[in-house]
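To fix ideas, we give here one paired sequence and structure record:
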Amino acid sequence: MMRQVGIAIVLLALAVPAQAEPPAAPPSAPVPLPAPVPVPPSADSVPSRPDAARLAAARRLIDLFVPPGSFREFMEGFMPDDDGMLALIAEQLGIDTTGMTREQRIQAVQERGASRDPHFRERFRIMMEVTRRVAAETMAELEPQMRDVMVTLMARQFSVAELDELSAFFRTPVGARYARLSITMMRDPAWQEMYTLMAPRMAEMQRRLEAEMAAATAHLDPVPQS
């Protein structure tokens, strides 16, 4: 989800140089999924309102697992690198870069961009600088509230003893390393490959949902229009 937010921000910025292009048709609204059937709580389920001890233990854990500044780093990690930016620009400009070297892709992007906007290079540089800065600042502003949500979430799921055990793990060298890498390892090409594999399947799933929902509800009267 966070990666999608970061990429969406970049794509919005990249769309600006190509304003002369006609706007694409808006995507169809997602088909709402039925609400999950509630599961009765078990006898040993955690409380919906954790007590002070749970919250304190959860905060100690979050301070170890997500040190201050992590959310800003998280957002920065999802911003495309130079090659990623180049690929995004080429896609926005309608350039097929298959088989091109990096130098050829750069030249093709610069030529196509300049043909549409004489200030293409300067405009794009400014847009990317502003996008990165605003995204990072926004995540820094949201971090206190997001950390509070994570504290509550962990306090609801784990007992004080379990939270302390998790904290003990994250104080070990391997636990501290895992906590640190859990933010940055999403830049790994293997993680990017996973999203590349998922994207077309998710689009296919959306089309299938729309078709099957339409078929399954064909016997119902249309939704009244207000």
